[in-house]
Specification:
about 290 residues, alpha/beta, Arc Repressor Mutant, subunit A, D-Maltodextrin-Binding Protein, domain 2, 3 domains, three-stranded antiparallel beta sheet, 12 strands
Length: about 290
C-alpha cells in the first residue's frame, strides 16, 4: 500500500470523478485507475463502484475513506514537522483576520518579520465566513477574529485576550461620561459606525437587540482605519473594541455596559491538524502585543 494510491483514491472519492481527479492531480486517468486497482487487489475488495458516467464509493470504500484521509493528513503533518526542525529558517505562514481585527496586525507583523525574516507572511483581511472556508480549504494556517466561535466544529478556537465593545472618541470628546455607558447613552452622540457585517457592528447589533433606542448615525464605513481617521478628526464618535484603541493614540474609550458587549480576541485553527511552529510564534507575539492590561 503506497501513499500515492491512498492519495488517488481519496481524490477520486472526494470528487466522485476520475477525470476531475486527473485534472486536480495533474496525472492521467489511466495512472489513477491502475493504482487504485492495485490498492483494491491488495485489500481484496472493491473500493469504488464505476459505470460509464458515475463513480461512487462502495460500502468498503465508505469505511476506508476516512482512514485513508487521516493517513494522508498525518503524512502532511510529518512533513511540516521536518520543516519546523529547521528552526524557522524556511517556510510560509498564512494568517487571516476579520476587518475589525485588522488594525491589531501591524505591531505583531513587524515584530514577527524582524525575528523571523526568512518566513514569508501571507496576510488576508476578510469576513469571518470567508476566513472559515479558507481555513477548511487549508489556505490559511491561522484565522483571527473577535468572538470565540467561527461556526464549524472542525475548527478549534482559543482566547487571545479579553476585550469589550466601547464608545470611542478623540481625546476630550467624551467629557462627562462615566466609567461605563448604557445603551441609552449611545443616542446622545453623533455616530460614525463600522458597516454592517463587520464584527464591531455585529456586536453593537447584539447589544441593541430588543432595545428601544434611536441612534444618531451620521455615516457608516467598512474600513476601521479610515473610521478611526474620521473620528480622530471630528466630533463624531464610534463603537469599536477597546483593544483597537489600546493600539491607537489620541483616542479614549468607555466600555458599553451590556452582557453582549464582549469582544474577546480569538484565534482559530483546524482541529486535530498539525500547527506550524511559525503559527505558534505568531500567536505568542499577538498575546504579548495585545494585552489590555499593559
Amino acid at each position: 500500500m503506497e501513499l500515492r494510491q491512498l492519495k488517488y483514491f481519496v481524490e477520486v472519492g472526494r470528487l466522485r470523478s476520475f477525470s476531475l481527479a486527473s485534472k486536480s492531480l495533474f496525472i492521467t486517468q489511466s495512472t489513477i485507475s491502475q493504482q487504485i486497482q492495485k490498492l483494491e487487489e491488495e485489500l481484496g475488495v472493491e473500493l469504488l463502484v464505476r459505470d460509464t458516467r458515475h463513480v461512487t464509493l462502495s460500502d468498503y470504500g465508505e469505511q476506508f475513506y476516512p482512514f485513508a484521509s487521516q493517513v494522508l493528513e498525518e503524512a502532511r503533518a510529518g512533513a511540516e514537522r521536518i520543516r519546523d526542525v529547521k528552526a524557522l529558517k524556511v517556510g510560509t505562514l498564512s494568517v487571516g483576520a476579520t476587518y475589525s481585527f485588522g488594525p491589531l496586525f501591524k505591531r505583531t507583523v513587524l515584530d514577527f518579520n524582524r525575528q523571523f525574516p526568512s518566513i514569508r507572511l501571507n496576510l488576508l483581511i476578510a469576513s469571518k465566513e470567508e476566513l472559515r472556508q479558507k481555513l477548511l480549504d487549508r489556505e490559511l494556517d491561522l484565522a483571527l477574529t473577535y468572538k470565540s466561535t467561527i461556526g464549524d466544529d472542525r475548527i478549534e478556537s482559543h482566547l487571545l485576550f479579553p476585550s469589550r465593545l466601547c464608545l470611542v472618541g478623540r481625546e476630550g470628546e467624551l467629557k462627562g461620561v462615566g466609567s461605563e455607558v448604557t445603551v441609552q447613552d449611545l443616542s446622545r452622540f453623533p455616530l460614525a459606525l463600522p458597516s454592517r457585517g463587520l464584527q464591531a457592528r455585529d456586536t453593537l447589533e447584539d447589544v441593541l437587540f430588543a432595545q428601544n433606542v434611536d441612534l444618531d448615525i451620521r455615516l457608516e464605513i467598512n474600513s476601521i482605519r479610515y473610521l478611526l481617521d474620521l473620528v480622530g478628526s471630528s466630533p463624531l464618535v464610534t463603537v469599536l473594541s477597546e483593544e483597537v484603541i489600546h493600539q491607537a493614540e489620541g483616542f479614549e474609550a468607555v466600555p458599553i455596559a451590556h452582557p453582549a458587549s464582549r469582544m474577546d480576541g480569538c484565534y482559530h485553527q483546524i482541529k486535530g491538524a498539525y500547527h506550524k511552529l511559525a503559527a505558534r510564534k505568531f500567536i505568542e507575539l499577538l498575546k504579548e502585543n495585545n494585552s489590555v492590561n499593559d
